[in-house]
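Dear Dr. H.,

I hope your travels went smoothly. While you were away I took the liberty of generating a structure for the chain from your last submission, since the lab meeting agenda had it listed for discussion. I wanted you to have the full record in hand beforehand rather than looking at slides cold. The sequence, exactly as received, is reproduced here:
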Amino acid sequence: MIGLFSRPESRLLYAENVLTRSGRETSLNGREKILPMDATTLAEAGAKARLNRANAKGDRHNIQSVDRALYLLETIAEAGGEATLTELATRTGLNISTCHHLLATLIQRGFATKVPGRRLYALGARILCLGHTCLQVDLPRRAQRYLEAINRATGETVHLAALHGDAVITLAVRESLHAVRVDTGKIGKLEAPHATSIGKAILAWLPEDEMRRILAHGMKRFTNNTITEFPALIESLRVVRRNGYAIDREEFLPGVICVGAAIRDQAGTVIGAISASTPTMRASEEHVASMRDEIIAATRALSAEFGGPGSQSSTHRAVAN
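The corresponding predicted structure, in token form, is as follows:
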């Protein structure tokens, strides 16, 4: 029989006979090498991500356990924020035991959590913390054009601040265009969040226990207008939330009025604030109202860039003297 075929055809026939004789497992392996499956036909959940991960396997720098753990977090997110162990194993193509061990480590580190009373795994608070930090790192870059626009429109000193740990930090300053200007401090830790508009704009959107932690060293008096009692501050912050902006009427520095508003992300969490400061000699009702409107417009736009809600009221009360 072999003599009836040319030499190449004989080799092909021999290979087919070997596949047939080697049993089902060898046959499947051989076919995978000769006819690789078209991965684009995979339509189930997670298929696209599996393809990307498969392509990454050839990378000698790829750490498989890290890749799998991150893939689990992505899969939980894609599932709507929570999923069962079985669902995660199905979506990722990992076996249940591997998923369980990886999830246990992620839970220990705070990147995942078990939903109480239900057999579900959810994303952990640590992810929110890292995401919040990432937003703050990007904040000065995104805020730059807004700070400059407020500075041009009002001519006043403009500040950008954010919460880092238990401290409110000034991240950027645009100095006043006027000869007579306000010196409200430079970049760095804000010493009086309870007495400044930018500090109150941030505090207003924090849980009460976090406010107390930030103000753990006391509420120092700077002027006769400084709020130094926590209950009074809480009441003033309710007004800040209702109005959508904070105002400092000579609470930190005599002769200085400031207006500030918060920047919030998609979860409604405050990630920073912007304020403008003017000396009382220029603080007419019209000028302060103009500062307020510029600040609110800028913080709304920045919040929208970070996916934040329309947290400020669309109608703003006139600033009373």
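Two observations you may find useful: The longest helix spans residues 125-154. The CA atoms of residues 169 and 189 lie 4 Å apart.

With kind regards,
E. W.
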